[in-house]
Automatic annotation (TrEMBL):
Coiled coil: none annotated. This is HD-GYP domain-containing protein. It comes from Cohnella ginsengisoli. InterPro entries: HD/PDEase_dom, HD_GYP_dom. Residues 1-155 form the HD-GYP domain.
Length: 197
């Protein structure tokens, strides 16, 4: 993408959930599982977002399209219209991947954040619905590449800094903890739970 498209994608990603302003707080902030009716209402945030953004003539129509399509999936099992990959705007496919990563790795009223290593594993295995595999690959490659030099929490509760990434074993880096090093390739019982970005 060129600079103009990246700027447009950034705007679309920032506004993709704007339709949630029309969802009642008792549904949006509900700590437990939604009923079928509540879930049907929640899914309307895509249409609401499209309507809000489309009504503003100063906003590029692709931004509204992303709000509408970010829950669609390659296999047609997404919403609101069940369209397939080829019918989706490319920016919608990118935002869909980022949205799933964010949803799974963030604390929400209805769930705790999933550990980093599980989010990556499940996204690679396509566990969150059919996403564009190329976009998932590029997205995860960039996320993992940026682990180098970051503070991470290991599954045993210790914190350390990622000092080396093996391209063949990217989820099993070398981590400096205190004065020592832990090679996650050898210590397979340990994983990265959290990252300080």
């Amino acid at each position: 993408m060129g600079d103009d498209e990246v700027a447009l994608l950034s705007l679309a990603a920032s506004l993709h959930d704007v339709g949630k302003v029309r969802i009642p707080d008792e549904i949006l902030l509900k700590p437990g599982r939604l009923t079928a009716d509540e879930y049907a209402q929640m899914k309307l945030h895509t249409v609401y977002g499209y309507e809000i953004l489309k009504a503003n003539s100063k906003i590029n129509p692709r931004v509204a399209q992303v709000a509408l399509q970010h829950h669609e999936r390659n296999d047609g099992r997404g919403y609101p219209y069940g369209i397939r990959n080829s019918e989706m705007d490319a920016m919608s496919r990118v935002v869909a991947v980022a949205d799933i990563f964010h949803a799974m790795s963030s604390r929400r009223p209805y769930h705790e954040p999933m550990p980093f290593y599980r989010v990556v594993s499940e996204m690679r295995n396509g566990s969150f619905g059919e996403l564009d595999p190329h976009i998932v690959g590029v997205f995860l490659e960039q996320i993992i590449r940026h682990l180098l030099g970051r503070q991470v929490k290991l599954s045993d509760g210790r914190w350390g800094e990622v000092v080396y990434l093996d391209p063949q074993e990217d989820m099993h880096p070398l981590v400096k903890v205190g004065d020592g090093f832990i090679d996650l390739k050898r210590e397979r019982h340990l994983n990265i739970e959290e990252i300080i970005i």
